[in-house]
Amino acid sequence: MLSPRGGLENTVFTIMDSNRSKYLAQPSRMPYQTFPGCENDPEIMARGMDQLVAPFAKLPFPDQLPIVKGLRYALNVGACDRRPVVIITGTPEERKKIKESLAPLSWSPEFAGQFVFTESDPVEGQKAITIVQPDEYGVRSTLLAVSATTNDLSVVLTQGLAKFKPWTNDHRQHLARGVRNGIRWRPAVPVEDKQANSATKRLWGG
Fold first, then answer.
1. Alpha-carbon distance 99 to 115, whole Å?
2. Which of 117, 107, 166, 110 is closest to 142 using CA atoms?
3. Exposed, middle or buried: residue 89 (CB in 10 Å: 0-12, 13-18, 19+)?
4. Could you read off the pLDDT of 156-169 as tens digits, one per residue?
5. Which of 149, 167, 174, 175 suits 79 as a labelling partner, its CA being 20 to 30 A distant?
6. Distance CA 22, CA 64 (A)
7. Alpha-carbon distances of 110 from 16, 115, 157, 161, 162, rounded to whole Å
8. Global pTM?
9. Torsion of CA 36, 18, 62, 106, to 10 degrees
10. DSSP E strand stretches across 124-195
11. Residue 10 and residue 24: Cα distance in Å, rounded?
12. pLDDT digits (tens, 9 = 90+) for 28-40
């Protein structure tokens, strides 16, 4: 959100129509201000968004697998969203075939929004599909399920989802633990919010 002086003051959340001409949700700082309670119960936000889009015509699902570029970012996204991460491993040709097989499953009612997908080059001893649970900071992960072929993708996704144990975070405690453990996230895009930068310096020093 821009201040009257033109600087970036803070975040803003809203939902607009496809023409970007009308607010469907009143702008606010965070999603939980627009959908109160969704920080603890994501279904609240899901139901609210369903109501907002109900008047609009439904479009077909994309035919491509949603991919987060890079395992490091995928683990971080999985930690932030509290979702398991599916790692697709193999040569470019092998990964292409796996992604084509996974794409319809990723948009199915059973699995839509349940995973973060990423890919990597071949790793010795690693299977075609590896599903892991990131820790709360996206630094480490725990193995949930693996598959060496594309014949049982639905089965391995179900196994991984069944073993995944989401956690709840108190923001202050989460931040304090991260500081104690020396875990610090450096964003790819420079932070322009002067207040945020000042708070970071106070927290970490320097």
1. 14
2. 166
3. buried
4. 999 999 999 988 77
5. 149
6. 29
7. 27, 11, 10, 10, 12
8. 0.76
9. 0
10. 129-134, 141-147
11. 21
12. 888 999 999 998 8
Cα(132)–Cα(41) distance, integer angstroms: 23
What are the E-state strand segments in 4-115?
13-16, 23-28, 85-89
Query: Which positions ≥6 away from 109 have C-beta within 8 Å?
Result: none
Are 15 and 52 in contact, with CB atoms under 8 Å apart? yes
Whether 179 and 148 have beta carbons less than 8 Å apart is answered as: no
In this prediction, residue 2 has a pLDDT band, given cuts at 50, 70 and 90, of: low
What single letter denotes the amino acid at residue 177? R
Reported as a pLDDT band with limits 50, 70 and 90, residue 1 is low
Work out the mean pLDDT of the chain and round it to a whole number: 86
Radius of gyration of the chain, Cα coordinates, nearest whole angstrom: 20
CB 137 within 8 A of CB 178: yes
